[in-house]
Design goal:
- By secondary structure, this protein is of the alpha+beta class.
- It contains eight helices and eight strands; from the N terminus they run ββααβββααβααββαα.
- It has a four-stranded mixed sheet with strand order 3-5-4-6. Strands 1-2 form a two-stranded antiparallel sheet. A two-stranded antiparallel sheet has the order 7-8.
- The radius of gyration is 18 Å and the shape is globular.
Length: about 230
């Protein structure tokens, strides 16, 4: 991680993480919590929040359009809240959106706790009003129009952690083997383009995420030959 002076925003500095660094941070945290699966399967992300941050996620009414929030104290994360609107929707799509939101909020905890521990007391990020050290999050689910970098580095980095926590790199590569072929002099695995969508659907079932999250993660680890892939 590198740190840069911020020209605007609530913090005097902002961290810069390479994608591989975020994957490593997420993988190390899952292993430390004893929750990194040995084979491709769904990560118990709610249990991870409980074990790693020593808190239980809460479900509460949040402002319209806000899906989750993470609050911080001098020693780390003090609370993660998911909107009851997601819980009330019901069904597997909604349950997977909750998992994605939990991973996004956990990403803030893994990547941004040190900003609050430094003693800075910014207002709520992305919201007006209260001066509580809290991040409120909208649009964290990785659709094509929601996931592009829009200058809000805090949200962008937490979105990258969704893949690292719910679809760990090594497990995704293992699960994608049936959809890959070896190419190039080094024989590196390459995702077959005509199998990409089927791979996304099958990996969505394996890792218990919505297909858009699986598509984004596959684009991240197995770049398309053309430009313009989605990003978490």
């Amino acid at each position: 991680m590198r740190t840069y002076r911020a020209n605007r925003g609530p913090f005097a500095t902002r961290p810069f993480y390479k994608p591989a660094e975020i994957d490593r941070i997420c993988a190390d945290a899952l292993k430390a919590a004893g929750l990194m699966p040995d084979t491709p399967e769904a990560v118990r992300v709610e249990r991870f929040v409980e074990k790693h941050f020593k808190i239980s996620p809460r479900y509460e009414a949040l402002p319209d359009g806000v899906l989750g929030s993470t609050s911080f104290g001098p020693k780390g994360v003090t609370g993660i809240v998911i909107t009851t609107a997601l819980d009330e929707e019901g069904g597997s799509v909604s349950e997977r959106r909750i998992r994605t939101t939990l991973a996004h909020e956990a990403g803030h905890g893994l990547l941004h706790t040190h900003l609050f521990a430094l003693g800075e007391k910014p207002p709520k990020l992305f919201e007006d009003g209260s001066d509580r050290p809290e991040i409120l999050c909208r649009d964290v689910h990785g659709t094509a129009h929601e996931s592009r970098y829009d200058g809000r580095w805090c949200k962008f980095q937490a979105n990258r952690a969704i893949g690292g926590l719910l679809m760990p790199r090594g497990l995704v590569i293992k699960a994608a083997v049936p959809f890959c072929e070896e190419r190039g002099g080094l024989g590196l695995p390459t995702l077959k383009e005509d199998e990409r969508e089927r791979a996304a659907r099958e990996l969505a079932e394996i890792f218990d995420v919505n297909p858009v999250v699986a598509r984004i993660r596959l684009d991240d680890l197995f770049a398309r030959p053309e430009s313009g892939q989605l990003t978490l």
